[in-house]
Design goal:
This protein is mainly α. The chain has one domain. The protein is 81% helix and 0% strand. Helix 1 packs parallel to helix 3, helix 1 packs across helix 18 and helix 14 packs antiparallel against helix 15. It is globular and about 65 Å long.
Length: 496
């Protein structure tokens, strides 16, 4: 019997693979630059503001995610999917008009909710309350945030450029305006201005290509759009609750100092999780097209994705646990040592998250939003209950354990739903080789324990990459495909 991996890829599968590789390369290049800038600004803020005021910043951003859900309303996922299925100019303009109109109405509701929540926060000083208020104005920018259009049309370069511009503004503003804890309120101003710069860039590019959008949308358009967006919006709400209920509860029942420690731990988790989001932004259009062409059109791409994300997630988890102590001391300083243990627990969730995202995206692409919603609700309820049970007893470590448990449950349930509703998409057969490569990484990092953490991490990455190549977790052809996507294509003979 011929296995799927041995089968010859179809022309459509090869085209999907090239598109995914190109999109991923563009987004990754942009994110390497923008996330590096974001790390610089966050580390600077953590050191200058101190754990207590850095906790205020972390908590304000956590609160903001909930009214932001109201404005986004599932359109960030629904919009690209609808454009992939019909990229005509008329359909794009119709979608943008509908989304902007509905978001405008929702933004007012979301802003009022954010202001009320900020005003009634317990044990908040005037400077902390003012600093939190400022973030609320970013909700109005979501109205004209049309980065989803460029994701749907697979013009990933503009999304990357906008993100880099946002981080450049953030870094410049942070270094110019923040040099003491009393500058806390300026952090929110910088955040809003940076978001504005990025949003306006994409909005102007959209106007140049499609014309200025108008407001107002007929019932025949907004009703089916809202109906399709509702389960996605609820799912995203549950996913957000699952993602940061721990941070919310830490901010509500523990001190600003503890919130700052947990926020510092999450900043380390933030980088690989954002890279994961980028990867699936590049992969999602191929999954969406497979809804019509059938799962077999992306079977090889899907198998490769699960193999690579498994290896990366487990590598991040192993490396994070072993190097955490020295990494936090090097990056944040001695004030943030209480963040080390929560981080070591949180980083384990990366192994589950990197794998389960394949199944979650596949469910939405194949119109199984109901299943996606159910599995996220299960994970969110588990997360909330475990946080309530564990945090009072174990503090920040208990919050981190709840996150790991919820991601593990998400993997199990998403795998089960895909198997039952779409097709069998396994991942277990890749695990022996991935675990063998991870074991080599563990030995390497432990042997180099006396080295500087930067040297230890770089050598660990090189050894892990070589182990994955030797064990055929990744192949030379896949590496060449990625490298080729980053390089300009040579012109064909006789071409212009």
């Amino acid at each position: 019997m011929t296995s799927h991996t041995a089968a010859q890829p179809s022309p459509e599968s090869r085209q999907n693979s090239r598109k995914i590789t190109r999109n991923f390369a563009v987004l990754t290049l942009g994110q390497i630059v923008s996330r590096s800038l974001a790390v610089i600004s966050n580390v600077y803020l953590a050191r200058v503001l101190g754990a207590e005021y850095f906790g205020v910043v972390s908590f304000a951003l956590t609160i903001l995610t909930y009214p932001d859900l109201i404005v986004n309303a599932g359109f960030m996922r629904l919009g690209p999917r609808e454009i992939v299925r019909d990229p005509s100019r008329h359909n794009v303009r119709k979608l943008v008009r509908a989304v902007i109109t509905m978001r405008l109405l929702l933004s007012v509701v979301a802003f009022v909710i954010f202001m009320v929540i900020s005003a009634i926060l317990p044990e908040t000083t005037d400077i902390e309350r003012r600093a939190t208020f400022i973030y609320g104005f970013a909700l109005f920018l979501v109205v004209i945030d049309i980065g989803w259009v460029f994701l749907g049309t697979e013009q990933m370069q503009w999304v990357s450029i906008a993100d880099i511009l946002m981080q450049i503004v953030t870094v410049i503003g942070t270094f110019v305006l923040i040099d003491q804890p009393e500058d806390l309120a300026w952090v929110g101003v910088i955040y809003v201005v940076a978001q504005l710069t990025s949003t306006v860039l994409l909005f102007v590019l959209y106007i140049r290509r499609y014309g200025a959008p108008r407001l107002g949308v007929p019932r025949s358009v907004w009703r089916p759009l809202a109906k399709a967006a509702l389960p996605l919006a609820v799912t995203r709400s549950m996913a957000t609750l699952n993602l940061n209920f721990d941070s919310l509860l830490v901010g509500l029942i523990m001190s600003s100092y503890a919130t700052g420690q947990y926020g510092a731990a999450y900043r380390f988790i933030w980088v690989p999780s954002l890279l994961l989001a980028i990867y699936f932004s590049a992969l999602t259009p191929a999954f969406d097209r497979a809804y019509k062409a059938g799962l077999e059109s992306i079977r090889i791409v899907l198998d490769r994705s699960i193999r690579l994300t498994s290896a990366l997630g487990i590598g991040v988890a192993v490396g994070g646990v072993i190097t955490a102590q020295k990494a936090f001391d090097f990056v944040y300083g001695s004030e943030y040592q209480d963040a080390v243990l929560p981080f070591q627990i949180l980083v384990v969730s990366m192994a589950f998250m990197f794998i389960n995202r394949n199944y979650r995206v596949l469910l939405v692409s194949f119109e199984q939003q109901g299943a996606q919603l159910r599995l996220i609700m299960i994970a969110a309820i588990t997360n909330v209950l475990l946080n309530i049970l564990l945090m009072p007893r174990y503090g920040l470590a208990g919050a981190a354990l709840a996150t790991v448990a919820s991601e593990a449950i998400t993997l199990v349930t998403s795998y089960g739903y895909v198997h039952r509703l779409i097709a069998h998409v396994g991942f277990g057969r890749h695990m022996p080789r991935v675990f063998a490569a991870a074991a080599i990484l563990v030995v390497t990092l432990l042997v180099m324990d006396g080295a500087h953490v930067v040297v230890q991490v770089l050598v660990g990455i090189a050894v892990y990459g070589a182990a994955m190549l030797a064990l055929r977790v990744i192949t030379r052809a896949e590496i060449e495909r990625v490298v080729g996507a980053w390089l300009p294509r040579p012109k064909p003979p006789g071409g212009v």
